[in-house]
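User: Fold this; tokens only.

Assistant: Input:
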Amino acid sequence: MSEKQKAKEKPHYVDNKRFLQAMIEWRLKCQKADEKKRKHPAVTNYIGECFLKIANHLSYRPNFINYTYRDDMISDGIENCLQYMRNFNPEKSNNPFAYFTQIIYYAFIRRIQKEKKQQDVKAKLIANSGTEMMMDSLVGDDAQYKNQMLEFLQKNVKESDKKEIKKK
């Protein structure tokens, strides 16, 4: 059996046709609610599961897998899907899987950028708050690592300063 045949037999983790149908039905319910000036209906369990599956699967890609805040990335992706699902227009596109994958992808990128900024801020705070004074409090076995820790922190601060200069 060839690779193409195996790929065709293997079911996708999100059925795009069923996902499209669910999105169309949800949009129709929203339109009816708008006409009656009522609150929009809740997202169906199936649509929510699709968002979760897409976000989880995308988080296992090599460029996202090693982050310690992967759960935050997934949460951001799902939140953005819920926020922008009204913008999906089945008349323009019949591929909700691609649409929401892009939303989640960019949510992941934004979270990574946010976390990197936070790491830079933490490093600068440590550097500016008198790391030497903090290290002086170390005693016993911990004292031998004082110089190594100071060098490590100073190196990280210098690297983040270089990155900021390159950005400007």
